[in-house]
Design goal:
By secondary structure, the protein is α+β, with helices and mostly antiparallel strands. It has 2 domains: 11-185 and 304-386, Aminopeptidase; 187-302, Alpha-Beta Plaits. It has 9 helices and 19 strands. The chain has helices at 11-19, 31-41, 110-126, 149-159, 211-223, 272-290, 311-324, 339-342, 367-386; strands at residues 45-48, 56-61, 69-75, 96-97, 100-102, 132-138, 165-168, 180-182, 184-185, 187-196, 200-201, 238-245, 253-254, 257-266, 293-302, 305-306, 329-331, 348-350, 364-366. The longest helix has 20 residues, at 367-386. It starts with 10 loop residues before the first helix and ends with a helix. The mean pLDDT is 96.
Length: 387
């Protein structure tokens, strides 16, 4: 008698179920509980790796420490909904109509998580691989990300768990599913500048020490400097002045203080430390020139990294081409992702849906696109373990 095959997991239906879990960072909302139950029933060893009030889920199918281990990484937390009254359908309804799934997280990235969970479950049930599959799912990607994927990686190191390679399921495609994958990301850092002078009457500027001209000079030096002209895989680094403020409502008072904030997106020619040292050097020159005090605080949210084109990007590219007919561009554009943490653990690339509606009111995704993404992930698993 032929043993009946388990019913394949419907990735689109799972996306709608996950959307109905109101998991705004750092609230778990039931999303990881749902996935934990599904994966446990499919034979995965599941462990909650909660830290700092953040819920995370580690799931492994196959032997611990196996030499061949394919990993997926993603997040179930979402950004706030904004004006709930502006939504066509309630943001956590998971409403499905005319082949479209509506709700917060439909694009970023409950659909991606649903696709790789569905692909992994079906794969181990149908063709159990000689190796391990690891799913590292966090509830803290949209927030500070200090207790999310980093907590999962810390747990893996402590427990001797290892991914040979990893695919992050973030949205990566600008226009059409299959047109882009990420093989790296620019670094990102914020610089908070504070200039302190001496307050005084604007009619007697010689008795004051105005911090504003000093700040203007420093900002001009920094913003007009060309950091680089780009590299083989990265665009030129950029520096954006995002705020300058004195908090001074009076026209007859020279203020004592002025502050500003910069955001620098940088390529692999730089590090957070090297850029911080450059800003500090420029600040000291201006401080000496104007006789003011300048201090700065920097926060690096991620260093630039690159997974050079090779076996992993080829694996993903061939699967995408087979399922969509498109050969994805290998890109490093966009903001940061949790791949910035994974890159220290193993080679990592990113591939996911079209990101048109992420973080927007009326976030939504075509159900067929989620199903197609599952097919791509399934092919990647098949091809990886068939090697």
């Amino acid at each position: 008698m032929t043993t009946p095959q388990p019913t394949p997991v419907d990735a689109a239906a799972l996306t709608a179920q996950l959307i109905r879990c109101a998991s705004v960072t750092p609230i778990e909302g039931g999303a990881l509980v749902l996935l934990h139950t599904m994966l446990d029933e499919a034979g995965f060893t599941c462990t909650r790796v909660d830290r700092g009030g953040v819920a995370n889920l580690f799931a492994r199918w196959g032997a611990k420490g196996h030499a061949r281990s394919f990993g997926f990484n993603g997040h179930t937390d979402v950004v706030p909904v904004g004006d709930e009254g502006a939504w066509t359908h309630p943001p956590f309804s998971g409403h499905v109509e005319d082949g479209i799934i509506w709700g917060r997280g439909a694009t970023d990235m409950k659909s991606g998580v649903a696709a790789f969970v569905a692909a992994a479950i079906d794969f181990v049930r149908q063709t159990p691989p000689d190796g391990a599959i690891i799913l590292a799912i966090t509830g803290d990607e949209e927030g500070d990300a200090t207790d999310g994927t980093t907590a999962l990686l810390d747990y893996m190191q402590a427990e001797g768990e290892q991914m040979s390679v990893c695919l992050v399921g973030e949205p990566t495609c600008p226009e059409t599913l299959g047109d882009m994958m990420k093989i790296g990301r620019r670094g990102s850092m914020n610089v908070h500048l504070n200039v302190t002078g001496v307050q005084g009457h604007s009619a007697y500027p010689h008795r004051a020490r105005n911090p504003l001209p000093a700040m203007a000079r420093l900002i001009d030096r920094l913003a007009s400097h060309q950091l680089d002209q780009g590299t083989a895989h990265f665009d030129a680094s950029t520096l954006a002045v995002v705020t300058i403020d004195t908090g001074n409502p009076a026209t007859n008072v020279i203020p004592a203080k002025c502050k500003a904030t910069l955001n620098i997106r940088f390529n692999d020619l730089h590090s957070g430390a090297s850029l911080g040292a450059w800003v500090q050097d420029e600040a000291q020159k201006v401080a000496a020139e104007f006789g003011v005090e300048i201090t700065l605080q920097t926060r690096v949210s991620g260093e630039a990294f690159l997974t050079p084109p090779g076996a992993l990007s080829d694996l993903v590219s061939k699967a995408v081409q087979a399922e969509t007919g498109l050969t994805p561009e290998l890109s490093t554009t966009g903001g940061t992702s949790d791949a910035r943490f994974v890159k220290a653990h193993c080679p990592v690339v990113e591939f996911g849906l079209v990101g048109h509606f992420m973080h927007q009111v009326d976030e939504r995704v075509p159900a067929a696109q989620v199903t197609q993404l599952k097919a791509i992930y399934s092919r990647i698993l098949h091809d990886y373990f068939a090697q």
